[in-house]
Design a protein that fits this description.
Layout lengths: L2 H21 L14 E5 L4 H11 L4 E6 L2 H14 L3 E6 L5 H14 L5 E4 L14 H29 L2 E6 L12 H23 L5 E8 L23 H13 L4 E4 L2 H11 L2 H11 L17
Parallel strand pairs: 1-2, 1-4, 2-3, 4-5, 5-6, 6-7
């Protein structure tokens, strides 16, 4: 196709996609049926992982829970069964350990079957400035928050590709789109998680595997305890998010094959402004929104899988 024809095609398709997006403001997207599908959630022993498990359970899925906290998983499993899960399986797994991920993944495939929906949710935060953070904690942050996604994809994506069916869900963060003072290692890990998920999503589209969907979730800080002490400068514009609200929005995004979910909605505008404003103005905006002082009162958990 020559340059002129391809340019016309891009313009026409762009117009149509914008019209389509506008129409969906008034006409809800159709939700897919995932009853009976196998959903694996990492970091399922507490927080958003537990809440997502309950939401998926109510849709009649088969749940596979991973965490380093066995007692936490037992409680999640109990709640998921009450919520309607057809079956619940749980496994101790340190997602930062590649060999353990592969070993437990093989066990899941033998005992449960292929995973249809993979939710990479496990995460940790050090809450220390870069020069104050021990090397071991920074390495652990990257291993859990981003490298673990490599290993879970390698373990479960081949079956999805073979069937041209599945869904990859990455629970990242707005700190994977916009940097925050005092979160250098966390931001690095979440930027990596966003870029990795987006790139693999493009690989799937380029190879014609459009039945394997991707959802990248970038929430502002959530009131789960992970970021205890952090105070938002403008709570109306950027509120600390309610965990139940976030879990429900994630499930809705999965059911409607939404590629990017940013929470709260103001983050769509803020992320766009960051990419188009001059650098000095962007820094000024970040300072205005509290990116320089958000972590000043942090007292959360140094190691907490969400």
């Amino acid at each position: 196709m020559n340059f002129f024809l391809e340019t016309i095609q891009v313009i026409l398709l762009s117009i149509w996609y914008n019209v389509e997006a506008f129409l969906h403001l008034f006409v809800p997207m159709k939700k897919k049926n995932i009853a009976g599908e196998v959903v694996l959630i990492t970091g399922a022993g507490s927080g958003i992982g537990r809440l997502m498990a309950q939401e998926f359970a109510a849709l009649g899925t088969v749940l596979v829970l991973w965490d380093i906290n066995q007692e936490g998983m037992k409680e999640t499993a109990r709640l998921a069964k009450q919520s309607g899960a057809s079956r619940v399986h749980y496994y101790l797994c340190d997602c930062s350990d590649k060999n353990e991920v592969y070993r437990v993944a093989d066990q899941v495939k033998r005992e449960v079957g292929d995973v249809d929906i993979l939710v990479n949710n496990a995460g940790i935060v050090t809450g220390k400035k870069f020069m104050d953070a021990p090397d071991s904690l920074m390495e652990k942050t990257l291993e859990v928050n981003s490298m673990a996604h490599f290993w879970t994809y390698k373990a479960f994506l081949p079956a999805m590709i073979a069937n041209n069916h599945g869904h990859l869900v990455s629970i990242a963060s707005t700190a994977g789109l916009i940097a925050v003072n005092g979160l250098a290692d966390y931001c690095a890990s979440k930027f990596a998680a966003v870029g990795f998920a987006e790139s693999v999503g493009l690989e799937l589209l380029a190879t014609g595997k459009d039945g394997v969907k991707t959802t990248i979730v970038c929430p502002y800080f959530i009131n789960t305890g992970m970021f205890d002490g952090c105070q938002t400068k403008w709570p109306t514009l950027l509120p600390i998010l309610n965990p139940d609200y976030v879990a429900k929005k994630i499930i809705h995004a999965v059911l409607t094959d939404q590629v990017f979910l940013l929470l709260p909605k103001s983050m769509y505008l803020i992320a766009a402004l960051k990419n188009i404003l001059p650098m000095k103005q962007g820094i000024l905006l970040g300072q205005y929104l509290g990116a320089f002082s958000l972590m000043d009162t942090f007292r959360g958990h140094s190691k907490k899988q969400e």
